[in-house]
Specification:
about 200 residues; mainly beta; four-stranded antiparallel sheet
């Protein structure tokens, strides 16, 4: 995290900060939170935990040089790995029995989907690099962003990656409405005086 050299350039001081992250479960009733996983090494720390379905969560953690997606029950126990192979699998989000995630492999960074059990993994995008901003609550659509066109967004079907809505000149993104029927975005617009505002 920090590095400095002596005036004589013959000594270097380095500070390295590490952390160990685990997944915890807390009931909204106010019951005491309990730890779901027992990670003991910073190199295996959990990140990106979110609800998968009633009684389980998903998270990402490193495994033999690659970040993989895993699931664990809220009662604890052994985590189960959902993704494998020579790829980093990141930013997993779940809705209605479906998981959407980003995969980085030798073809680039693209959006993928799979079932809650890791089955039926499919690639949804194949351009120059794509990430996603939001997954609808019904699990039917995902909002894609493009590295080559940073102000463009597309709403894609999570079934096959088909574009159902596309918008350019987007300056901000909030995401899907609670009922999954609308997407809230902001775009620049000129007023009568020629001044640009965001609507």
């Amino acid at each position: 995290d920090a590095i400095s050299a002596s005036l004589a350039d013959d000594t270097v001081a380095v500070v390295r900060r590490t952390s160990i992250r685990n997944a915890w479960f807390a009931d909204v009733s106010g019951a005491q939170a309990r730890r779901l996983a027992s990670i003991t090494s910073p190199e295996s720390s959990i990140f990106g935990a979110s609800a998968l379905a009633r009684g389980s969560v998903i998270f990402e953690s490193p495994e033999d040089r690659y970040v993989q997606i895993r699931t664990i029950g809220t009662a604890g126990g052994e985590a189960r790995q959902l993704t494998t192979g020579e790829s980093h699998n990141l930013n997993a989000r779940a809705a209605n029995g479906l998981v959407v995630f980003g995969r980085l492999d030798n073809t680039g960074f693209h959006i993928w989907r799979m079932g809650a059990d890791g089955a039926d993994q499919r690639q949804l995008t194949s351009g120059g690099g794509e990430t996603f901003t939001d997954l609808s609550r019904d699990g039917l659509h995902v909002i894609a962003n493009y590295w080559e066109s940073p102000r463009k967004i597309s709403v894609l079907s999570t079934e096959d990656g088909r574009v159902v809505l596309e918008k350019s000149d987007v300056s901000g993104m909030i995401g899907f409405s609670p009922d999954s029927g609308s997407v809230l975005i902001s775009s620049p617009e000129k007023d009568a005086r020629g001044l640009v505002g965001v609507v």
